[in-house]
Amino acid sequence: MNMFTGWRAALRIARRDAMRAKGRSALVVAMIALPVLGVTAADVTYRSVTPTRAEELTAAMGSADALFSDPGMGAGAIEQMPDGKSYDVVPDDTSQPGGTSGPGIDMTTALPEGAHAISIETVPAAATTAYGMATTDIVELRTSDPMVRGKVDLVRGSLPRRDSEMAATEPFLKKSGLHVGSRITLRGPERTYTITGVVERPDNLKSAALYAEPGAVIAPWRTLAEHDKKILPPNTGSKEWLVEGAHGAGVSWADVLAANEKGALVVSRQVVLDPPPDSEVPMARSMSGSSYGGSEELSAALITVVAMAVLEIVLLAGPAFAVGARRSRRQLGLVGTCGGDRRHVRAVVLSGGLVLGGAGAVVGVVVGFLLTVVFRPMIEGWAGHRFGSLAVHPSELLTIAVIGLVTGLLAALAPAIVASRQSVLESLSGRRGIRRSSRALPLIGAAALLGGIAIAVHGGTSGDSTPVAGGSVIAELGLLCCIPMIVGLLGRLGRRLPLAPRMALRDAARNRGRTAPAVAAVMAAVAGSVAIATYMSSTLAESDFEYTPSLTPGTVALIASDGGATPQLPLARAAVERNLAVNGGHADLGRVWAGSDCAVYYEEENGCGSVELIKPTGKGHSCPLKGKGARALAASLSAEEHKKLMRSPACLDEFMYTTSFQGGPGGIVLGDAKFLKTYVKLRDPAAARALAAGTPVLLNPAYATNGEVTLKAVHTYNDRDKKNRKLHPGKAEIRTDRLKVYQAPEQYATTPGVRMIMPLRTTERLGLHTEVYGSVYTVAHAPTDAEDQRVSAAIELAGGGMHLLSEGGRDDRNLQEDTILLILSLFAGVVTLGAAAITTGLAKADAEADLTTLSAVGAPPGMRRTLSGFQCLMVALTGVLLGTAAGLVPAVALRLVDLRQAVQDMRVEPMNSAYTPIVLPWATIGLLAVVVPLLAGLLAAAFTRSRLALARRAG
């Protein structure tokens, strides 16, 4: 029998064996197809969601030939790179190097001769909604022009063609509660428009904006502002033009250079896709080539992911081939009796891997591609932009399929070697023989585990991530080698357990060949998920430490935009109390100033006066992380000590920049006991009595010495403020007063926006000016979009000039990160359930004779269910616990890398935070360690038949 004939016969035997054992074959095909499916979907999605250069140009300029813009450098000449990403002014005798602002350019002189152009201009405006009023961007663009296709596309309805019509994006309609046909009024131009259609930006599906015809919003708004000084003119941004070359010639590099001479910046499709040589680019002489890393790291990460996927498939599918070879040992023995040797037995088992691996690879690639097509809208919504096209690279898909095929062969390799070593007599008689576990393997694994941990920790402490990755892999491989021993030890723990768990543990220990790979597969999946989740949770805790809130939690603030809006405050309060979930009444918020009205801007220093707290010097007052000796001190501190010092009152203002509610520095507000309770959350009767008696309440004790603070006030006047001129005639006067204060507990020093609360009686005594310009409220929850729009509309009806501040926190960040953590948990959970189910199914198929004997000796019917449930539970729980331990190694080591970098930055700049916590993702660990194993056990018990089917008597 030559090699070709032997393999042809082996393939035929493997195909027939796969058709006979359809359940086991489907299991192996599924295990190989699932990762191939995932990699195929990821490859097609990544290639499709990553825009090409041509697709980026279409998103920026539609079907136009070029995008012209005013870079804001005046009418002088500029020079640019062909892609338009780098540009600068051309220095001459009248311009300053680096660019200067000046009058805008006349774009009509910069356009190529005979070119057709349409303008793009954006302005923010307040628009009425179904709930009230919201601020959004208004884009003036002729969306009906063919050049816009690809930049703005119509989804439904019709495009605006008259000045009274607008188109809206889907996010704006969802936020505002409007629809096609709704009427919308813009505050500013005070005009009403009809929404005629829904459009989208393919490169930004989350954009909330309105689109109008050029001249429909901005021009009438400007005209109205010129005649009515109470109306502010529109605050427009830079203007752009979509340009189409004459007679379809496009915009050449010569046209770009000519436009640069007029001061225009140009991004030309023709030039970007076919750039000129550097010798024709004036700016290229001053630009040095630069390369950006990342491709090697990306390739390494990709290889690692593929290797781990192959490892998991081999670990999961290998036991299935082993059981298949064991069930077919009589057939394999007959091969030997017919003259076949070990090579032919190995060929039969390997052919099974080839047949099932090929089937799994084909099914995975086809289904992965089809799923990407079906879920394309969902993927585009999650990514935030449309696919330019469904990108399919046949070479990559073929490589993925080959990896699946090779994986099947690798999964069958070990069972093939074991089957070939069995004697013909053992195969025909059904004896398994005695196989002992290797004693050297656990020792090697323990050494690799300890060595890998040491390498990873060394890499973390030295700040090098390469040893961290290598050490983590070595530690995980070492733990893999220890799994058979761990499974064997678990079998000894069942001596005092009831029958079902005792049999499950002993069966797992006796058949380590199928139990250990499944536990290892679970461990590998859980280790990756726990590592990423731990690192993410730790970095989130670090960013939360550095985050500075704008308001105290659970509060909102109603603030007057200027002094003239203060009379509308009562009506604005009513709007807030009617539309928000307010707990209790409001607390007045007032500002304190000296001299002129601070609501008016003056160019001279202290033109409107100032009031500030003077911070004493010395220990307990000055931050030791600033000034002389700060670097030496920072170098001697641990991360926790540095964190504690940064949060101390003396350093708090250096770490958290304190501003008053009106935006200026100082943090001195006018308030009473109700403000203490509502905003500061300080329920101290002594503090309330102090305010009532005219004693200020100091929140940051670093400003006090012996219970007193130093207050510096610069009193000024101006010709517009006759009242203040009478009070403070002449030049600016500087006064310094010592005030006795009540010191609040140290933890209230972090109150956003407030250092000290001044009672009205004290300001009158010091000759300071005060004004109640806002209110603060305690709310049950942060305002929703609808509530915020209702309040804005009510305030506008009351006369405007007020705005609502709320602390949004980091909800968007937390939502995104929580989604990632949930996906990781689900992935690890699915692999855990799959591995446990495979092991349970193989155990049941492998031990059918034992189960028959168990039933014959009087075991109750439910024993089969209980035994299957405990077998599944044991595999899942063991793999999860080991995976959690393995996943902590790279996560902790990478945080040590971050710590070293943070300490180095701290020593350069002592106020840089060195706080790098290690936070365990208890929610993810709890889901994987408790919920998933229990679910696996319950599902295994539920899907196991209680009674045995009648078996045919052998012989």
TrEMBL record:
Pfam families: FtsX. The chain crosses the membrane at residues 300-324, 345-378, 398-419, 440-461, 473-494, 515-536, 820-843, 872-894, 914-943. Keywords: Cell membrane, Membrane, Transmembrane, Transmembrane helix. InterPro entries: ABC3_permease_C, Membrane_comp_ABC_pdt. It is found in: Cell membrane. It is a multi-pass membrane protein. Residues 305-423 form the ABC3 transporter permease C-terminal domain. This is FtsX-like permease family protein. It comes from Streptomyces yanii.
